[in-house]
Design brief:
Radius of gyration: 25 Å
Number of helices: 2
Structural class: mainly alpha
Oligomer: single chain
Shape: rod-shaped
Protein name: Transposase
Largest sheet: 2 strands, antiparallel
Number of strands: 2
Number of domains: 2
Helix content: 55-70%
Strand order of the largest sheet: 1-2
Strand content: 5-15%
Distance between the termini: 72 Å
């Protein structure tokens, strides 16, 4: 049977199979990171974060180009 490598979990003070330990830790990590959101909500949130980052990078690039052109037009270069 796969997953029956028993390890001691000190904070629970009992022996559990590895698969149970990792399953529960993964669940609690998921819950802590996502605050109880459902999977589709988390996917949408991550998509929005990626899009927001892309737009921020694009906006900073446009601002840099505008500043360079403005300095060149005013003769400060």
């Amino acid at each position: 049977m796969i997953g029956f490598n028993y390890t001691k979990i000190h904070f629970w003070r009992e022996w559990l199979p590895c698969y149970e330990r990792w399953c529960s830790l993964t669940y609690y990590q998921w819950f802590r990171e996502n605050g109880g959101l459902k999977t589709n909500q988390v996917k949408r949130s991550k998509e929005l974060e990626k899009e927001n980052e892309r737009l921020r990078m694009t906006g900073s690039y446009v601002t840099r180009e505008r500043l360079i052109l403005h300095e060149a037009a005013s003769g400060n270069c």
